[in-house]
Hints:
Elements: H1 2-19, H2 28-34, H3 36-55, H4 62-101, E1 107-109, E2 126-130, E3 143-144, E4 148-151, E5 156-162, E6 165-170, E7 179-184, E8 199-203
Antiparallel strand pairs: 1-2, 2-6, 3-5, 4-7, 5-6, 7-8
Amino acid sequence: xxLFSALFKAVFGxxxxxxxxxxxxxxxxxxxxxxxxxxxxxxxSRFTSAARSLIKRPRISDxxxxxxxxxxxxxxxxxxxxxxxxxxxIFALLMWYAAHRRGMISVSGTTPELTKIEDIxxxxxxxxxxxxxxxxxxxxxxxxxxGVSIAPAIEGDWTxxxxxxxxxxxxxxxxxxxxxxxxxxxxxxPDHVRLSTHSYSFQTPRFEAEL
Length: 211
């Protein structure tokens, strides 16, 4: 800039000697050129300050994000853990039940029909059915006097017709519309036999008169 100013003064002096003196005022941009370096430094400083303010703008740090992510993932893991625990418990119970039922003999039976009105009443017998062999060999074909009962009480005979069928033949007629329950003691079965239940219930039909 000093070189430019000296050159301008020399040219201005030569012209004033040739043409006489005259006045001249520099344009606004001349002042900018004269202070070019300082103006450039000012613009650079302003730009740098603006860039620093953008860079230093507060943001969520990794340490703030991480706990939130861990907390969210922790809730999911807890829920998954609870679901897996419930599934495991249910599976364990099913396995225990299956192992407990393995080799177990189920118990079912028949229901007597209404006795036909005849000169000699012949009420239907009741058969207690077993899914596997359940009879004690020493009781096979014999009339049972203990170990089995029926309620309400009704007179009759209990016998094993096979190793899987226990038959009750009543000597009196069944009461209509009545629930009967057969109960069997463990002593009437071999030690290795396991029954699903030691009782059997049935309902006799209701008596309906027709005119």
